[in-house]
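It is worth pausing here to work through a concrete case rather than discussing structure prediction in the abstract. The textbook approach is simple: state the sequence, then state the predicted structure, then interpret. We follow exactly that order.
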Amino acid sequence: MPLLPVPSHEGVLAVHLLGLVQFEATLGLQEQQIYELSGRNDLNGTLFLCEHPPVISMGREASRNHLLLDDEELSHWELPVRWVARGGGAFCHAPGQLAIYLQLPLDRLKLGLTQYRELFETAVLAACLELKIPAKRHLQETGIWTRGGQLGYFGAGVKSWVSCQGMFLNVSIEPKWLQVTQTNPEGTASTSMQSLRLDPVRMPQVRESLIRHIAGHFGYAVTDLSTGHPLLRRTRQRIPRIGSSHPT
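Step two, the predicted structure:
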């Protein structure tokens, strides 16, 4: 039976384009949104789109064995490791990977966890296909896949029946950052949209397509778009430069 989008409703999806932002800062923003959305009675939701300085996040299915760098190498690469209350394994985040944090009142939208994941993945897949990226979903595995490897990772959580965390889509991330964790089952490689196209992949174009398809799949006819967030403080961080080869 084909998966049906959520019927159109009167809720508003607030979309925040955050740019390059610290991973920990987005955790705080999401906690604030969970508190706010769980105390409401409407169908409003929030979508944060951002990139992160290099960091490894570890979900509930992650273990230290999924890290392909030892402690000395992690320190040398200035690559912090953060444990997060979400599904999924070990994901390495870096500029060029788009973090898609979707916070919705699942109970009021009458969505179960499986339906939420399937709608989320289907919306991201639709954006990939629209951008001429030959991607697909796997019935056995979460995320977005291509012949070249995994393109998007699903790692969501739910608190007070409000979804948090979400998906991470490799747009133009440097390949070296995809070699520091064992993200995929049975050693399957990770890839990026840029690796699958000869023409440059523009992040604004990816964001626009994702916003449209995510809003449509979850029944939001109205979106409220803004840049930044009033609770987000801008800081400077040096992006470490590392060699392109994988450490031995």
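Step three, interpretation. The helical segments are 23-38, 71-76, 113-130, 203-217. The first strand starts at residue 9 and ends at 20.
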